[in-house]
Amino acid sequence: MSNATPGRPAIGPKVPINFSTGLLSDIDQAADLARTSRAAWVRRAVTRALPEDFQGPITPDQLGPYLRGSSMGEDLDNPDRDVHVDNDTALRLLRAVDDGALTFGAITTESASVETERSRRNLSFITRPFIAHGEEITVYQVSYTTFSARQPGEPEGVYHRQRTLYLDHDAAKVFYEDMHDSYMK
User: What residue ranges of the chain have pLDDT lower than 70?
Assistant: First the structure.
């Protein structure tokens, strides 16, 4: 006779956690949008909220989606100045990842959030140093997300995420502050 319990194999220990009714409803809507279970969605959200902890070199599967899913920043005060992650920098990162020679340094994050009955907005300024063939390449990332709760008559809520990458700290900070002033109201 086996002592195993029925059902799926355990992922890890159970962690009881309480959410407000409104937040739980938002989580359920987001899980439905992602076509996943509530537990899987919460695990994914928590994982995304934590700093990356890559062991060893970064893989193409980690870097590719990061670069492809990002917008390239511009200097709002001086649009002719190159401040974004240009093709040369992207190629240096991709070559290092192909050679197994790309890692992360310690990242820092500054974040702000606003929540209303209808939506939740998050804005983050992330300093992300890559080490490519022993040389540091610091990328400044401005990320913003919006989750709009399902409204009466609508089939589901809406989730939107965008990140913009810079090589220049000051230009990234100007963009972050501009977004904060307009997006976080």
Answer: 1-10, 47-56, 69, 74-83, 151, 154-155
Determine the Cα–Cα distance for residues 130 and 23; give it in Å rounded to an integer: 35
Residues 60 and 40 in one domain: no
Q: Which of 146, 130, 141, 138 is nearest to 184 (CA)?
A: 146
- Do residues 93 and 140 both lie within one domain? yes
Residues 85 and 112 in one domain: yes
pTM for the structure as a whole: 0.64
- Contact indicator for 138, 104 with CB cutoff of 8 Å: no
CB-CB contact of 148 with 26 (8 Å): no
Domain count of the chain?
2
Q: Tell me which H or E stretch contains 142.
A: strand 135-148
